[in-house]
Amino acid sequence: MEWTGMALLLLVGVGIIGTGLPAAVVLVAVALFGAALGWATATVPIGLLWALPGRLINILDNDLLQALPLYVTMGLLLNRLVADALYRACSAILPRSRSAPLVSGMVLGALLGPMNGSVGASVLGLSRVISPRLNAEGVTPAIRDAVVAVASTLGVLVPPSLVLILLSDTMLSAHTPAVTQTGRADRVINTQDIFHAALLPAGIFLVLCVILAWIVGRKATRTVKPEPLTVSQGLVAATALVALVLLLGGVAAGYFYAVEAAAMGAFTLLASGLLTRRLNYTVLRDVFHDAIAITGALFSLLVAATTFTLVLRILGTDRLVNNLVGAIPGHDVLAVAGVLAVIGACAFVLDAFEIIFVIVPIVIPPLLIRVADARWVSVLVLLTLQASFLLPPFGYALMMVRGTAQNPAPLRLMLRALAPFLAAQWLLLMIVMFEPSLVHFGQGEGEIGRAPAKDLSNEEINRRLKEMVPPPSMPDSN
Amino acid sequence: MSWLCRLDRVVGRIIAGAQWLALPLIILLFLQWPLRDIFRSYSREANDLGQIIFALFVAVSVTAATRAGTHLTADAIAQYYSRRVRVRIRKIGALIGLAPWALFILLASKSVVVSSLQVREAFPDTGNPGYFIIKLALWIMAITILAQSLLEIMRRAPRDSA
Question: How many contacts, defined by CB atoms under 8 Å, are there between A and B?
Answer without folding.
Answer: 209
